[in-house]
Amino acid sequence: MCDMAGALQEFGPEIWIADGPTVTAAAGFHYPTRMAIIRLSDGGLFLWSPTAVTEDLRAEVESLGDVRYLIAPNSLHHLFVGDWQQAYPNAKAYAPPGLRQKRKDLKFDGDLGDAPIADWAEDIDLVVMRGSLITTEAVFFHRKSATVLFTDLIQHFQPEWFKGWRAIVARLDLMVAAEPSVPRKFRIAFTDRPTARASIRRILDWPVVNVLMAHGEPITDGGRDFLHRAFRWLTDQ
Asked: Could you tell me the superkingdom of the organism this chain comes from (predicted)?
């Protein structure tokens, strides 16, 4: 995990990442947070999975351009969207399936579906991974950097990240493994396998080089081959 929490790092052409604070989820599991900032062809900024707002982070983001879009990529990554809406009231916020019902306190300008929004379609493609009982995740592909962005469907933690019984669970769940993996709980939760398989095949068609994830170090070479390995449990059926 990155030690420079909150500091923007250039990840590729027109894409930056920033690591935020650790958050606590169900059963006391701690997760790091990460956001991505993509500068679109028109100069506007697309913020994926926004982390906590700080004055320093705002200043760095604003140095790149105008914040136009706030993206919650699944129904589990939404904690800080409201704070960014307050900071940038003119930015449009987009919700994945299921989040509007969960966060009725937030105002969303649109929904993430099976086609990219026209405003960013030139720069970013989109596939919604349907068929899961846990969450429906929108997976994005930034064309200029050849980067695919996963939120929770692919994770990778260092062995020392979790302690005690949580470390055992993390290993059994494949959150801790030799390389980034789809956790077993997500594999089990995909009860509609034909729908999920159709979604991942669209993703595998992208010319991916880099794989960016919210919970794990990025893959910076051979991304397409990696994705074929990561989703073999689904595509080989």
From this structure: Bacteria
Contact 210, 150 (CB under 8 A): no
CB 98 within 8 A of CB 136: yes
Q: Where are the beta strands (DSSP E) in 29-172?
A: 30-39, 44-48, 66-71, 92-95, 110-111, 124-129, 137-142, 147-155
CB 19 within 8 A of CB 32: yes
pLDDT tens digit sequence for 56-88: 999 999 999 999 999 999 888 788 899 999 999
The pLDDT score that the predictor gives to residue 3 is: 38
**Does residue 49 surpass a pLDDT of 70?**
yes
CB pairs under 8 A, 24+ apart, for 221-227? 223/146, 223/147, 223/148, 226/179, 226/180, 227/148, 227/203
Q: Give the residue carrying structure tokens 């055992």.
A: 168
Mean pLDDT estimate for the chain: 91
**CB neighbours (10 Å) of residue 18?**
25
* pLDDT tier at 118, thresholds 50, 70, 90: very high
pTM: 0.91
Domains and CATH numbers, the chain: 9-235 (3.60.15.10)
Q: Is the dihedral of CA 97, 73, 118, 122 positive or negative?
A: negative
What are the DSSP calls for 40-64, one per residue?
Answer: -TTSEEEEES-----HHHHHHHHTT
